[in-house]
Design goal:
Layout: E1 3-9, E2 13-21, E3 26-35, E4 39-41, E5 44-46, H1 49-65, E6 71-77, E7 83-86, H2 107-112, H3 117-124, H4 133-143, H5 145-150, E8 153-156, H6 157-166, E9 171-172, H7 173-176, E10 182-183, E11 188-189, H8 191-196, E12 207-208, E13 212-216, H9 219-225, E14 231-234, H10 239-246, E15 254-259, E16 262-269, H11 276-280, E17 284-287, E18 293-300, H12 303-314, H13 321-329, H14 351-361, H15 370-396, E19 402-406, H16 413-423, E20 426-429, H17 434-446, H18 453-463, E21 467-469, H19 474-490, H20 494-497
Parallel strand pairs: 1-6, 6-14, 9-12, 15-19, 19-20
Antiparallel strand pairs: 1-2, 2-3, 4-5, 7-8, 10-11, 13-14, 15-16, 16-18, 17-18, 20-21
Helix pairs in contact: 10-17, 13-15, 15-16, 15-19
Domain Carbohydrate kinase FGGY N-terminal: 6-244
Family: Belongs to the FGGY kinase family.
Protein name: Rhamnulokinase
Amino acid sequence: MNKVWAFDLGASNGRLMVSGFDGNRLFLEEVHRFPNHPVHVTGHYYWDILRTFQEMKAGIGKSIKKGHKSIESLSIDTWGVDFGLLSETGELLGNPYSYRDPHTKESLMELLSVIQKEVLYTRTGVEPAAINTICQLYAIKNNNSSLLERAKTLLLTPNLLSYFFSGVRANEYTISTTTSLFNIQERNWDSDLMERLNLRRDMMADIVMPGTILGPTLYTIQNEFSIGPVKVIAGAGHDTACALAALPIQTENSAFMSCGTWILMGVQVKKPVITEQALEWGFTNEGTADGEYRLLKNIMGMWLIQQCKSAWSKEGRIFTYEEEAQLIRDTASFTSLIDPDDSAFFNPNHMPEQIRNYCIRTGQEAPETPGEFLRCILVSLSLKYRWVLEKLEQLAGKSIETIHMGGGGIQNELFCQFTANATNRTVIAGPVEASAIGNSLTQWIALGKMKDLKEGREIVKNSFPVKVYEPQNQLEWQEAYGHFIKLLTNYNVEETLS
């Protein structure tokens, strides 16, 4: 059976998955997993990209030792917006900044004094935000201009790692649409926009579509592992585009949720939705693996729980997933709610303390026990998804009957059930490794082993299990949603969302 390597890198961990395809079913095996966190040094957050690459190579070594042969290709998907810079000779110019770095704090307001928010949104389809590539570049130009002067090429994170494997410089379509530098009408880098901001268009590597074969692995890679050439494919570079590609969606009346550190919730559309209302509500248009668009909203996800657990572990309190679930079940519902997207939760020093302070500030009973914190987070997240779902229906002009959830977050069954309860929609959860599966699908299609994404999704449906959650306890969840909307309205946090 022929196989491919699917590198799926998130903002908290990375993994190498081996995907096999026998012509009827897909098979997936995790061969290597590693933590992937920004490193805080000299007041900045950086990605240790060379350590990440070393971990990727360690995965290849493990895969070979396990006897995986006939590897045809590899592809890489990651989170959006971040990038690395290469010199004239192709050398990496320092560690890439993380989107959580505070150096962009002032850049958004400065940028919007040059380009109106509405103009920026109309041109790029992306909600203006300080984490976006455009703001990061603008901050570097203003604070570290010598870095840009030395830069020959900008490569987005998955494409930077593909370059390490292949030596080919190219930026892939789905990841490029996250930057707020991509002109959504011209489907290319926005030269006029970059000129107005005094950003260099010449360093933006050309954009290629998902499934483009960049070339074989470098001889140095082949020699290191004593293997023949492996095709390096620019698949869908953005992990959410990969996750959407893998979800077994059957009807247009379905929404998708990619569930990880962030939750990305949206619908697929043939044309971008760049209305005034979409901008006001903080929605973004990003590319899909088949060249269309995802109308979606970025929402805080498992980050809140991850940071609470990190704070508790430093205090010697460590819980298994089963213990967490029991703590939540043993805790009363709806005693406190938060807006998960409040800026206070973006990157605090102590997440539980921030949540307590938010509840006190908004006149609520503050959580005290781990169970109360966890239930507060999961309930609040679920209620936020209903808010987003209602806005999606208005923007897309259609009713949404089903929510397809994929990604690691769906392993939390209470999270899936709460989402069904809060939204009053059927939830179909699975596959768990949606982004890695979508990554492999783009490779099999590029290799000619599958016809298109429609066929790929049918194969996924027959290859991996899903779990269905139906709404429960609608009266109490409806009442809770009323309280949640009052919280958003009374404390004007909807402005914080966007």
